[in-house]
């Protein structure tokens, strides 16, 4: 079956005209025997777990339209059949479908036979879908040797076309003699091959039929639904520095409109070729060049309801998970498995663990959906392992997409509308937030993103959908993702002398969408620096040692185990708050709001990070994720206490950070600061530049305390009376 497989139909006609040779007869006999074997398999295959259970017969009666057949079952029944199907699927699949139709007709006869009329029902069309437990092939290994063979590949769908009607056979009529002929169409993206001449023999005196006399009669032809999908390699399978490959898929009948962009799939299909209509290769010399595509004959969705990856867990695994969850210090154990190569940052590790497990998604009676995913922002100094956390989460989460702030646009994060070259119609391609549906999006350099791009992910972070209204496409895509973002303060380092507003240079609207905001500082302490240095050196020294092979294997195994445990918890466990936990949470929230109000009154300015109802929901989600780690279905008061503690050390600390005007100021000190301010104003003069160092030196020579002068400068800077230019030069503004 090369690129000229259409010639089969000509040879068919030749055989029907000429006498039958021996070969076609033997081929027909073997086809008949294969058909009988398929029928026997569908009728007589017994389930291995229990006797007298015929799974394929029963599923045919329950769902007469399509039947899922496991290749392993077929191999157990007859070892030749899978090999035949794999080597020539285009020949044997129609036989299999034919057999299924006949078996279904026979099964139905037995049911309706009691009513007196014993006529055979017409065999129906049954679509056979194949599944197999074999390993998938890489998209990059598919070549000419795989053409017309059965293959299995996996990837992410990035685009789906509209549904078209594809003819299975075309009725053509001769313009001259009105002779009607039925021309079969090749399945997939192949077309029909219409004969050049009419086979009507003209009577004497009648005008003979011309060349190419046929006109298609569309109404009499038979159609099935067909749709094309675009499958892209899984991000984890792409070699470093390469672009991900795409493959065109063609699905028909019952597989149509079952897949939305962003779904992870494993498909079985026939690797086929077609002539691209207006491709760039369509020169005169490139007659023999064909484009590959895959005709899908079986789809396994890799995602169970919410989380991705195979959702089948063995009994041993489930027992092991339950045993692990029953241990008293399960929370500590999980946190120790989070980024073990990073020293310290205990609370950040706990927050990342909560983010990976996630809270419970809720559907309210009025149709409102409340998100269960937790968003975390790490803000702070360079070289505090922020990006390492992101990389760890990308490896550990069942589904994760890693992107950097500068290198991602709004369309790349959400979804873009693209025009198809051949059909000229628009279709949607999902971006990072859509592809990571059910997982985590890690965004590095969050502060370097353009503000208009950052606005695009507002909706994705709270409503967990992405609405598109572009180029005549108006739709809503799901993006049920957690966001883990890392950012630096505007000045590069976290400056303790600035207020929280100046250090966290992000809008309130986006900050309130983060459940936890950690300020990660690089504190210079002798003892701590020594421990960190020894830890880093140890990591470097032990990496790649001769003993390292076993260690590598165990490390990989542990990562895999954590991934599986995560999947199990996310699919099996959806905790809710207990009564006492609700009451305790209410009291905590009211107290936090009261504290923030008091702080605002004292300082005269609102907190940099707002404490709103969203933050209350954040504590609820944290409590649920802590319960989920222990596979508990109820979030207790203990979980709420830990959630509030985590929230306090992250977001509340960030809201309180920076220095405020009234911090530890006695009346005498306030008086001295006022004097220092008047001296500074007299010395500098409005609109003049002066170096900060020079100003402080001059005023200390006049007998003033250096710390008082610096504090006066900070307070004036907060009031916008002093502005800092490059190299710490200050300029006095009009007050």
Describe this structure in words.
The protein has 735 residues and is an alpha/beta fold. Among the domains are: 28-109 and 122-131, mini-chromosome maintenance (MCM) complex, chain A, domain 1 (2-Layer Sandwich); 139-198 and 210-276 and 289-301, Nucleic acid-binding proteins (OB fold (Dihydrolipoamide Acetyltransferase, E2P), Beta Barrel), CATH 2.40.50.140; 667-733, Winged helix-like DNA-binding domain superfamily/Winged helix DNA-binding domain (Arc Repressor Mutant, subunit A, Orthogonal Bundle), CATH 1.10.10. Component of the MCM2-7 complex.
List the SSEs and their pairings.
Blueprint: H1 7-17, H2 22-44, H3 55-62, E1 66-70, H4 71-77, H5 80-87, H6 89-112, E2 127-131, E3 150-160, E4 164-174, E5 180-184, E6 214-232, E7 246-252, E8 264-274, E9 291-301, H7 315-326, H8 330-337, H9 346-357, E10 362-363, E11 369-370, E12 376-380, H10 386-396, E13 400-404, H11 410-413, E14 415-419, E15 426-430, H12 432-435, E16 440-444, H13 451-456, H14 458-462, E17 465-470, E18 473-478, E19 482-487, H15 500-503, H16 508-511, E20 516-520, H17 526-542, H18 548-572, E21 576-577, H19 579-603, H20 613-629, E22 634-635, H21 637-656, H22 667-684, E23 689-691, H23 692-701, H24 706-718, E24 722-724, E25 729-732
Parallel strand pairs: 1-2, 7-9, 12-19, 12-20, 13-16, 16-19, 21-22
Antiparallel strand pairs: 3-6, 3-8, 4-5, 4-6, 6-7, 8-9, 10-11, 14-15, 17-18, 23-25, 24-25
Helix pairs in contact: 2-6, 5-6, 8-9, 19-21, 20-21, 22-24
Catalytic activity: ATP + H2O = ADP + phosphate + H(+)
Pfam family, one: MCM5_C
Subcellular location: Nucleus
């Amino acid at each position: 079956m090369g690129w000229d497989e259409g010639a089969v139909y000509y040879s068919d006609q030749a055989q029907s005209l000429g006498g039958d040779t021996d070969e076609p007869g033997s081929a027909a006999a073997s086809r008949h025997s294969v058909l009988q074997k398929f029928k026997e398999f569908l009728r007589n295959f017994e389930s291995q777990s229990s006797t007298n259970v015929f799974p394929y017969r029963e599923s045919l009666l329950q769902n007469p339209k399509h039947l899922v057949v496991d290749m392993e079952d077929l191999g157990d029944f007859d070892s030749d059949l899978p090999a035949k199907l794999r080597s020539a699927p285009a020949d044997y699949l129609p036989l299999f479908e034919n057999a299924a139709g006949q078996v279904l007709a026979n099964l139905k006869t037995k049911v309706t036979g009691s009513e007196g009329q014993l006529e055979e029902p017409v065999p129906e069309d049954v679509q056979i879908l194949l599944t197999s437990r074999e390993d998938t092939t890489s998209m990059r290994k598919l070549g000419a040797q795989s053409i017309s063979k059965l293959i299995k590949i996996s990837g992410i769908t990035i685009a789906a076309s509209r549904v078209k009607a594809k003819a299975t056979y075309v009725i053509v009529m001769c313009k001259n003699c009105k002779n009607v002929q039925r021309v079969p169409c090749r399945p997939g993206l192949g077309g029909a091959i219409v004969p050049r001449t009419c086979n009507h023999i003209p009577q004497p005196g009648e005008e003979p039929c011309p060349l190419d006399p046929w006109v298609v009669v569309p109404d009499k032809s038979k159609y099935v639904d067909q749709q094309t999908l675009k499958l892209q390699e899984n991000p984890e399978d792409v070699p470093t520095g390469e672009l991900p490959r795409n493959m065109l898929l063609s699905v028909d009948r019952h597989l149509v409109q079952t897949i939305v962009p962003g779904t992870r799939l494993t498909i079985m299909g026939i690797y086929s070729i077609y002539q691209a209509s207006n491709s760039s290769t369509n020169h005169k010399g490139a007659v023999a060049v064909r484009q590959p595509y895959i005709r899908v004959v079986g789809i396994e969705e890799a995602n169970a309801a919410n989380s991705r990856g195979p959702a089948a867990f063995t009994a041993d695994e489930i027992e092991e998970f339950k045993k692990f969850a029953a241990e008293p210090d399960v929370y500590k154990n999980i946190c120790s498995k989070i980024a073990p190569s990073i020293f310290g940052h205990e609370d950040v590790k706990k927050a990342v663990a909560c983010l990976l497990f996630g809270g419970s998604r809720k559907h309210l009676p009025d149709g409102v959906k409340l998100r269960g995913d937790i968003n975390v922002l790490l803000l702070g100094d360079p070289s505090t392992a922020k990006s390492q956390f992101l990389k760890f989460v990308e490896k550990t989460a069942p589904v994760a997409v890693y992107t950097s702030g500068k290198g991602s646009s709004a369309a790349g994060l959400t979804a873009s509308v693209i025009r198809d070259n051949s059909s000229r119609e628009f279709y949607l391609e999902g971006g990072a937030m859509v592809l990571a549906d059910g997982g985590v999006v890690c965004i590095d350099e969050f502060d370097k993103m353009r503000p208009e791009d950052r606005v695009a992910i507002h909706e994705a972070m709270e409503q967990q959908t992405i609405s598109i209204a572009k180029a005549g496409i108006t739709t809503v895509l799901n993006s049920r993702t957690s966001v883990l973002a890392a950012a630096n303060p505007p000045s590069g380092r976290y400056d303790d002398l600035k207020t929280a507003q100046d250090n966290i240079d992000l809008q309130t609207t986006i900050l309130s969408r983060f459940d936890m905001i950690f300020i990660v500082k690089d504190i210079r302490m002798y003892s701590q620096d020594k421990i960190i240095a020894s830890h880093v050196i140890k990591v470097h020294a032990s990496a790649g040692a001769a003993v390292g092979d076993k260690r590598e294997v165990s490390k990989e195994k542990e990562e895999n185990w954590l991934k599986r445990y995560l999947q199990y918890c996310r699919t099996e466990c959806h905790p809710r708050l207990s009564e006492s936990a609700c009451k305790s949470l209410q009291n905590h929230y009211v107290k936090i709001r009261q504290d923030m109000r008091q702080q605002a009154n004292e300082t005269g300015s609102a907190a940099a990070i707002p404490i709103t109802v969203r933050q209350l929901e954040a504590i609820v989600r944290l409590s649920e994720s802590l319960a989920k780690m222990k596979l508990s279905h109820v979030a207790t008061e203990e979980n709420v206490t830990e959630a509030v503690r985590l929230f306090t050390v992250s977001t509340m600390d960030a809201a309180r950070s920076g220095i405020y005007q009234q911090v530890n100021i006695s009346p005498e000190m306030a008086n001295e600061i006022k004097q220092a301010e008047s001296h500074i104003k007299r010395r500098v003069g409005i609109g003049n530049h002066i170096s900060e160092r020079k100003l402080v030196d001059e005023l200390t020579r006049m007998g003033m305390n250096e710390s008082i002068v610096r504090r006066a400068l900070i307070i004036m800077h907060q009031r916008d009376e002093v502005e800092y230019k490059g190299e710490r030069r200050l300029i006095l503004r009009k007050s």
